[in-house]
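User: My instructor asked us to take a sequence, write out its structure as tokens, and then describe one feature of it. I'm not sure where to start. Here is the sequence I was given:
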Amino acid sequence: MKQPRLNQQSKFQRLDFFENPNIGVFCKTTDEICIIRKGLPKKILKRVSSALQTSFIEMQISDATIIGSLLTCNSSGVIVSNIINESEISLLESKGFSVLPIEDTLNAVGNDMLVNDNGGLIHPKIENKTIKAIEDCLQIPFTKGTIAGLETVGMAAVATNKGVLSHPKVSEKEKKVLESVFQVPVMIGTINHGVPVIGSGLVANRHGAVFGSLTTGIEMGRIVEALQLD
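Assistant: Let's start with the prediction itself. The structure tokens for your sequence are:
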């Protein structure tokens, strides 16, 4: 398996956010805009920008920096926990997003939903009326489901408009659902030296990928292959 070359201008960046390799907890991205926690050093933002080829929205949600757990997004909109305040909604809207704060009791949005521009997979216990509003905002259909038996599908995989990298214990039935929902190839892998919850340590779009510092060369090769980044 071919391993990517890493440098400061690479479309593959292995790094930490304040010595934390779980960078997916603090960041979400589309192909155009990366929504990222406030306060990161400029040199880190430069490396993220180099990989993802995006502009940035630097923000908190209320007082929380765990952006990746509290929202999800595609090119049409942002779904976010209802703890968000009006000024933060206005910031997202100023960048062209439709914004939907959800009232569902399951509102760790980034953990509970996995999306690209073709479709979405969602925690099976989220209410149908909530799903309808989410579909309208993101302009994609949603399917209830699990990945490797996990209901927190947003942490169990990463989906882009070119591929899906999934928890290694995804079942064949679940894999077929992923392929149908996202309309891209699905592969399995790990992150950060064997962590199976891919979303915790990987942020990616069609241009490139950023992953936690513990990620091995073999894991990087799988990211590149699964998300068709080579």
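For the description part of your assignment, you could build on this observation: The chain has eight helices and 15 strands. Try explaining in your own words what that tells you about the chain.
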